[in-house]
Amino acid sequence: xxxxxxxxxxxxxxxxxxxxxxxxxxxxxxxxxxxxxxxxxxxxxxxxxxxxxxxxxxxxxxxxxxxxxxxxxxxxxxxxxxxxxxxxxxxxxxxxxxxxxxxxxxxxxxxxxxxxxxxxxxxxxxxxxxxxxxxxxxxxxxxxxxxxxx
Length: 150
Ligand SMILES: [Zn+2]
Prior knowledge:
The chain is α+β, with helices and mostly antiparallel strands. Helices cover about 30% and strands about 30% of the residues.
């Protein structure tokens, strides 16, 4: 799971894809909430801690970094423990922009990094029916679950 604030003028990156929007995620990296949630799920599945432990936001080498690089480094950690990814389910919760037309591009970007088929990457979107921070477009959240095999 990962959260980011949305801020006017920031680039909106999701699932490794740049999506045109007047707001984008605020963060030390490119604030790609979906890739961060997937990284966290991969690390969590192997009791490797969380994304903040491996890629601290106090480390300037990660400033504005493309989160695809973080996912790739996370994948290396998974491989080093002898695991591969079987499949992924994810949900992004936000009001705007509408993201599902970009899902094939996101699946492609994630599949290339994790060396699985796009068919094994589920990306879903939901709103909070205008309630709360996501409903007010102050931020967004992504959830991911992963299945690994040894
Ligand atoms: Zn994040």
